[in-house]
UniProtKB/TrEMBL annotation:
Native source organism of the sequence: Gelidibacter maritimus
CDD domains hit by this protein: ENDO3c (cd00056), NUDIX_DNA_Glycosylase_C-MutY (cd03431)
UniProt EC number: 3.2.2.31
Listed GO MF terms: 4 iron, 4 sulfur cluster binding; 8-oxo-7,8-dihydroguanine DNA N-glycosylase activity; adenine/guanine mispair binding; metal ion binding; oxidized purine DNA binding; purine-specific mismatch base pair DNA N-glycosylase activity
The name this protein goes by in its record: Adenine DNA glycosylase
Length: 347
């Protein structure tokens, strides 16, 4: 059985109709690949369509303000992708005069573009025989060939890339790459794969050995840390609040948020006003405060869980320059802050 030919034949019958599959424009393919990193297609497609509508060319994206890009990205998470997207658009517009680099090597020079994304763009847009390896590909290859090397180990990354490269159809690398990814997404699924209708089932090692549910193998993740966030929502009598740009590096860099107090444990109401940060922030100003949520809002990220409280501070005059409360939704924020704004200010 020819592995690649079988997958491409399956793909021609079962592929889903996606807007980025109706183009070879590298700008659109790049947009879709960046948006769909660590994002399900059902969630990512509306964002893709919004970006294409607002920024139909790489020049449009390059000329946008970063805050506008982050606002449009809001809700997708992993905001470094949006910042890299904007930086790369500027790079392509200025260094390549708006023409995307057409080789795997040059595509890797774009911020936020790694082996997988460069391989996808090079093969889909320029017919280069560069094999893609993502979560779906790892799953298909590990099961079909019965490979138990951890996919997130140095050895595994190299082994699967070498195998994927050896299997690629040099005459039709675009369909081959899209086929194996689509096959992993809807046929060889993580749970309850459709083995009984699989065109590869007669030669699948994992199926023959009854170890489909044991592959692929992945090393245990780093322990998830816990942090305690206390956002201070200051409300003045003239309907203004303090909303600040988060400038320090991290996932929420350049997004806006209410002043933040991090604590080493959950704060009770009696402890809040005693915090040195609170005393120095408001100094001798008279204010009233209350706790919006008695139960922590737990915001789960890949590497940490944020136990969050929102403290409402009512004050006559803000200790720092503020913005009208009616302007809050104009600013790019994390989904955590956005949800709070929707719940608290729209009630």
């Amino acid at each position: 059985m020819n592995f690649s030919r079988t997958l491409i034949a399956w793909f021609s019958k079962h592929k889903r109709d996606m807007p980025w599959r109706n183009t070879k424009n590298p700008y659109y393919i790049w947009l879709s690949e960046i948006i769909l990193q660590q994002t399900q297609i059902t969630q990512g497609q509306p964002y893709y369509e919004a970006f294409v509508s607002k920024y139909p060319t790489v020049f449009d994206l390059a000329n946008a303000q970063e805050s506008e890009v982050l606002k449009l990205w809001q809700g997708l998470g992993y905001y470094s992708r949006a910042r890299n997207l904007h930086a790369s658009a500027k790079y392509v517009a200025n260094q390549y005069h708006g023409i995307f680099p057409n080789t795997y090597k040059d595509l890797l020079k774009l911020k936020g573009v790694g082996d997988y994304t460069a391989s996808a763009i090079a093969s889909i847009c320029f017919n280069a025989p560069t094999a893609v390896v993502d979560g779906n590909v790892y799953r298909v290859l590990s099961r079909y060939f019965g490979i138990d090397t951890p996919i997130n180990s140095t050895k595994g990354i190299k082994e699967f890339k070498t195998l994927a490269t050896s299997l690629i159809d040099h005459e039709n690398p675009s369909d081959h790459n899209q086929a194996i990814m689509e096959f992993g997404a809807i046929q060889c699924k993580p749970k309850n794969p459709y083995c009984h209708t699989c065109p590869l089932n007669e030669s699948c090692v994992a199926l023959q050995k009854n170890i489909v549910d044991q592959l692929p193998v992945k090393l245990k993740k780093t322990k998830i840390s816990t942090k305690y966030f206390n956002f201070i929502v200051t409300l003045s009598t003239d309907n203004k609040t303090i909303f600040q740009k988060r400038t320090q590096k991290g996932i929420w860099q350049n997004l806006y948020q209410f002043p933040l107090l991090e604590s080493d444990k959950k704060l009770k109401i009696a402890d809040f006003k005693k915090q040195p940060f609170i005393r120095s922030y408001f100094k001798d100003t008279s204010f009233e405060f209350s706790l919006y949520n008695d139960k922590d809002i737990v915001h789960k990220l890949s590497h940490q869980h944020l136990h969050t409280k929102f403290w409402i501070v009512e004050i006559d005059q803000l200790p720092k320059k503020g913005i009208p409360i009616t302007d809050l939704k104009r600013y790019p924020t994390s989904i955590l802050i956005s949800n709070f704004i929707d719940e608290f200010f729209d009630d």
